[in-house]
Design a protein that fits this description.
Helix content: 25-40%
Radius of gyration: 15 Å
Strand content: 15-25%
Structural class: alpha/beta
Strand order of the largest sheet: 2-1-6-5-4-3
Number of strands: 6
CATH architecture: 3-Layer(aba) Sandwich
CATH class: Alpha Beta
CATH topology: Rossmann fold
Largest sheet: 6 strands, mixed
């Protein structure tokens, strides 16, 4: 069995996996009402994004934050650089992509979206 390498994307660029501890994976078809209400020792919750066109994970991320989850929240899967700002505004701390996607969409593409607060149309409209 071969292990798929992944890359963690944060505001300052690409990183290797650095999380150790208790983690929880959330499927994209999880209903918000079925999300856990208690988080115990869970230090990372990864929400799966099976396709870049599937936005259900953004709702799950926002809901987890509203429920009080304060640990590391990761969007994992088929996101593209243009969705990085949306993920951050939805409450995600980072995005996990495959090494293959990172090669096709290099760090510079993600860093262009890393100043996600400055590109929030809502703050410009309120302005």
């Amino acid at each position: 069995m071969t292990e798929t390498r992944t890359v963690i994307v944060r505001d300052d660029g690409f990183h290797r996996e650095d999380f150790t501890g208790e983690a929880l994976a959330i499927a994209p078809d999880t209903r918000p009402a079925d999300l856990p209400r208690e988080f115990g020792n869970v230090g990372l919750i990864a929400v799966d994004f099976p396709a870049f066109s599937d936005g259900r994970g953004f709702t799950l991320g926002q809901t987890l934050r509203r429920l009080g989850y304060a640990g590391r929240l990761r969007a994992r899967g088929n996101l593209i650089p243009d969705q990085y700002a949306m993920a951050r505004r939805a409450g995600f701390d980072e995005v996990e992509i495959t090494a293959e996607r990172a090669a096709r969409q290099p760090e510079a593409d993600w860093l262009r979206r890393a100043d996600w607060r400055a590109h929030d149309y809502r703050s410009r409209v309120r302005g």
